[in-house]
Amino acid sequence: MIIVHTPFLWVEGLTFFPWVFCRENNPPVWLLNHERIHLRQQLETGILLFYIWYILEYLVRLIQYRHRYRAYRNISFEREAYSNDKDLTYLTKRKAWAMLKYL
Ligand SMILES: [Zn+2]
Q1: Which of 3, 22, 74, 103 has the least C-beta neighbours within 10 A?
Q2: Which residues, 6 or more positions from 43, have their beta carbon under 8 angstroms from its beta carbon?
Q3: How far is the CA of 43 from the centre of ligand 1 (A)?
Q4: Beta partners for residue 16, in sequence order
Q5: How far away, in angstroms, is 1 Cα from ligand 1 center?
Q6: What is the residue range of 64's domain?
Q7: Ligand 1 center from residue 82 Cα (angstroms)
Q8: Cα-to-centroid distance, 29 and ligand 1 (Å)
Q9: SS3 state of residue 47
Q10: Residues 6 or more apart in contact with residue 42 via CB below 8 angstroms
Q11: Count of domains in the chain?
């Protein structure tokens, strides 16, 4: 994981394998763990599939919820990351393709 301080970022953190862009200079531990979970998801899906799936699921959730933030929070990748980012041991026990449980 390569952390890049990006003060002009419009979100707290953004992962684009292998980089993690963070708005804050000293990002909180939970945020780094959240982005680490995304890195694992990206590796599993071959990176390109992650972004295609992410965008398509966002559009489906947008139709479902008719609300941009709720659509984003309900993307399976985000559901998995937000549900487990406070658990710093999560990635040591996570099974492959665990995001499928959050569909
Ligand atoms: Zn996320």
Answers
A1: 103
A2: 17
A3: 15
A4: 19
A5: 15
A6: 2-102
A7: 7
A8: 14
A9: coil
A10: 15, 17, 50
A11: 1
Entry pTM: 0.94
Return the pLDDT at 10. Answer: 92
Predicted confidence (pLDDT) per residue in 55-84, tens digit: 999 999 999 999 999 999 999 999 999 999
Q: Is the peptide bond before 18 cis (omega within 30 degrees of 0)?
A: yes
Measured distance CA(5)–CA(91) in Å, rounded: 24
Residue type present at position 46: G
**How many CB atoms lie under 10 A from the CB of residue 64?**
12
Query: pLDDT digit string (tens) for 7-20?
Result: 999 999 999 999 99
Contacts of 49 (CB under 8 A, 6+ apart): none
Nearest to 64 by CA among 52, 48, 76, 50: 76
3 CA distance to ligand 1 middle (Å): 15
